[in-house]
């Protein structure tokens, strides 16, 4: 008599879950596929059940990756810290729509990275961020690189008292100077000194190198598209 051949055993009425590709560019479909009953291990004398191989091994979903897909909404594991944060909030507060986090949390985290990079670039030239902001506003004005204190307030978004203090400190360092306004005897203008002009030009060139590195892995088309999207969002705030 020929010996009985071992048959892979599958628990009765337990379907496999198969993910198949949807229409072009569409989401993957998850559908149960019924598995025929097979002889039990007792009937075959083999106590080691083995799962039947899948035609597409990567498409067989386990309870673990089904949960991950449901949490991240991506069909794969989290790609960054924001994915993990969003997944945790979706799990803890399924009653809330947390999708804004996927955009604005990334903007917030990028702002922190950029702030650190900017501080480093300015520090290499003996400047703090606020000092660069004032000097850069004057530099962008064009020759003779001077503005009224009111114009500096508008461009740097600080109070009048804060701006007066900042002009005083920059003047002490020899980077700006106050000059009488040719149009108003009682008015004054703030102007870059030659030392201030050199300092801001050098710091700006360094800043561009740093920022170019931050987005260097993005194709040019993606950078332009990202700039357009961020402009659309920021315009809503600038208009208020």
From TrEMBL:
<keyword id="KW-0238">DNA-binding</keyword>
<feature type="region of interest" description="Disordered">
    <location>
        <begin position="1"/>
        <end position="62"/>
    </location>
</feature>
<dbReference type="InterPro" id="IPR023187">
    <property type="entry name" value="Tscrpt_reg_MarR-type_CS"/>
</dbReference>
<dbReference type="InterPro" id="IPR036390">
    <property type="entry name" value="WH_DNA-bd_sf"/>
</dbReference>
<dbReference type="InterPro" id="IPR000835">
    <property type="entry name" value="HTH_MarR-typ"/>
</dbReference>
<keyword id="KW-0805">Transcription regulation</keyword>
<protein>
    <recommendedName>
        <fullName>HTH marR-type domain-containing protein</fullName>
    </recommendedName>
</protein>
<dbReference type="Pfam" id="PF12802">
    <property type="entry name" value="MarR_2"/>
</dbReference>
<keyword id="KW-0804">Transcription</keyword>
<dbReference type="InterPro" id="IPR036388">
    <property type="entry name" value="WH-like_DNA-bd_sf"/>
</dbReference>
<dbReference type="InterPro" id="IPR039422">
    <property type="entry name" value="MarR/SlyA-like"/>
</dbReference>
<feature type="domain" description="HTH marR-type">
    <location>
        <begin position="100"/>
        <end position="235"/>
    </location>
</feature>
């Amino acid at each position: 008599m020929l010996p009985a051949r071992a048959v892979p055993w599958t628990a009765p009425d337990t379907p496999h879950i198969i993910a198949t590709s949807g229409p072009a560019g569409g989401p993957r479909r998850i559908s149960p596929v019924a598995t025929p009953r097979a002889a039990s291990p007792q009937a075959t004398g083999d106590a080691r059940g083995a799962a039947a191989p899948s035609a597409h091994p990567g498409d067989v979903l386990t309870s673990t990756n089904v949960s991950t897909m449901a949490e991240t909404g991506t069909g794969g594991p989290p790609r960054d810290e924001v994915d993990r944060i969003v997944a945790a909030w979706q799990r803890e507060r399924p009653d809330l729509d947390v999708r804004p986090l996927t955009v604005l949390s990334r903007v917030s985290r990028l702002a922190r990275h950029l702030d650190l990079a900017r501080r480093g670039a300015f520090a290499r030239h003996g400047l703090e961020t606020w000092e660069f902001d004032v000097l850069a506003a004057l530099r962008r004005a064009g020759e003779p690189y001077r503005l009224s204190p009111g114009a500096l307030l508008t461009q740097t978004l600080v109070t009048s008292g804060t701006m007066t203090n900042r002009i005083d400190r920059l003047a002490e360092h020899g980077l700006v100077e106050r000059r009488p306004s040719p149009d108003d005897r009682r008015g004054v203008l703030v102007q870059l000194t030659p030392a201030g002009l050199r300092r801001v030009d050098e710091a700006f060139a360094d800043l561009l190198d740093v920022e170019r590195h931050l987005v260097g892995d993005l194709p040019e088309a993606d950078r332009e598209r990202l700039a357009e999207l961020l402009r659309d969002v920021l315009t809503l705030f600038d208009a208020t």
